[in-house]
Each structure stands twice: as structure tokens, then as C-alpha cells.
Design brief:
The protein is mainly α and about 210 residues long. The protein is built from nine helices and two strands.
Length: about 210
């Protein structure tokens, strides 16, 4: 285990990176409609910090087509995507690693109906800015939680062999973080299941 990376250094680097990075602001998005290639280029550039490996893709043409097929994204106008499309794609990006397509559709259908291309002031930019404006504060909270969890993980095996300590800390950290994610995912699903979402248009047509 001599070359095993320092768990604490990894955690500190991650927390600092998380707290320093800024979410994409609605004002960062182009005010002109974009073709699909321009959309993928923008998203892959501005969310590059989320990649695990350099070759990973944040967004592809296939992904966008699948989102439209599953009614997560309204169709483009003459093959061009608006700022509202871009904001929806950012929401989808954050949701897709946790939620099923069905749950994302439930969440986004009311959003799309009420705020997509709305002109009364409560539009997608208004909605997105209010939610994402909380991200820096949330990052700070998560950083504090990770530090507390790290302290707990460090003390789980106080009597283990010194050569195994870092591996056991890693194992404990991964297990505790996984438990945290698992329980929060269950809570998210219960919240979604408890909400009386309006039926989507396809379901309404089927009943006619």
C-alpha cells in the first residue's frame, strides 16, 4: 500500500474544486438559437470539469435525440435550439445520473409547460437562476459533510494493521458515501412518487 494515494489529499482537492467552481449562469448562455453541433460544443466545454476521463462526452447528438424521443426536451425550431433548450439540458445532465427517464419526465413536464418560452417574467432563466443560485451554498454544505464523514471513516478500524489503514479508510469512505447517496436517492424517489403530477399529453390522448 506504499504508493496508495492519500485519501485526505484527494478529499481536500475535491472539496476545494467543488467549492471554487461556479455553475453555468443563465447569462453565460448564448441569446441566439444554436444548431446541435454548437449545443454539444458549448455543453462539453462548460461542463468539462464533471468528466471522469478526458475522452468522456458530456452531451452528444444521440443523447439529445433520445431526450427528445422520451419527451424530456421540446423539439427544436428549424433544427435550432433556444436558450430554454440549453437550460433544460443542464437540468437533465444533473438528473440523469440519479433518476430514471420516467422520473425526469415527470419532473420536467410541468416545468416545460409552465416556463418554457414563457414571456411573463417567470421563464426558464428565472427558474434556473433561482435554483442554481443555491449551488455554491450547497457545495459548502456538502464539503462540510464530507469532512465529517472522513473523520468517521478514519476511526472505524483503529486497531487494524498500519499497512492496511489507508485501504480500509478508502473502503469505509466509499461505503459511507454510497449509503448516503442510496438513502438520498430513495428520498428523491419518494418525493417524486408523493407528488400529484399532471398527466402528460400522450397519456391524455390515450384515454380519449
Amino acid at each position: 500500500m506504499e504508493n496508495f494515494p492519500s485519501i485526505q489529499n484527494i478529499l481536500n482537492d475535491f472539496i476545494n474544486h467543488m467549492e471554487e467552481r461556479q455553475p453555468i449562469s443563465a447569462s453565460d448562455l448564448p441569446n441566439i438559437d444554436l444548431y446541435m453541433d454548437q449545443v454539444t460544443t458549448f455543453m462539453n466545454s462548460h461542463l468539462e470539469h464533471s468528466k471522469r476521463y478526458p475522452e468522456d462526452k458530456i452531451l452528444t447528438k444521440t443523447m439529445i435525440n433520445n431526450y427528445a424521443k422520451n419527451r424530456l426536451l421540446p423539439p427544436p425550431d428549424k433544427k435550432k435550439y433556444s436558450k430554454d433548450h440549453m437550460l433544460l439540458l443542464i437540468f437533465i445532465y444533473y438528473f440523469k445520473n440519479i433518476l430514471s427517464i420516467t422520473d425526469i419526465q415527470k419532473l420536467l413536464t410541468p416545468m416545460t409547460r409552465r416556463y418554457f418560452q414563457n414571456e411573463d417574467g417567470t421563464d426558464m432563466s428565472w427558474l434556473y437562476s433561482h435554483i442554481m443560485g443555491q449551488e455554491p451554498l450547497q457545495a459548502k454544505r456538502i464539503g462540510e459533510d464530507i469532512r465529517r464523514l472522513s473523520e468517521d471513516a478514519l476511526n472505524i478500524f483503529p486497531d487494524a494493521d498500519a499497512g492496511d489503514q489507508e485501504y480500509l479508510q478508502l473502503l469505509s469512505m466509499v461505503a459511507l458515501l454510497s449509503c448516503d447517496v442510496y438513502m438520498k436517492k430513495q428520498l428523491i424517489e419518494k418525493l417524486i412518487d408523493s407528488f400529484d403530477f399532471p398527466e402528460n399529453e400522450t397519456d391524455e390522448k390515450k384515454k380519449r
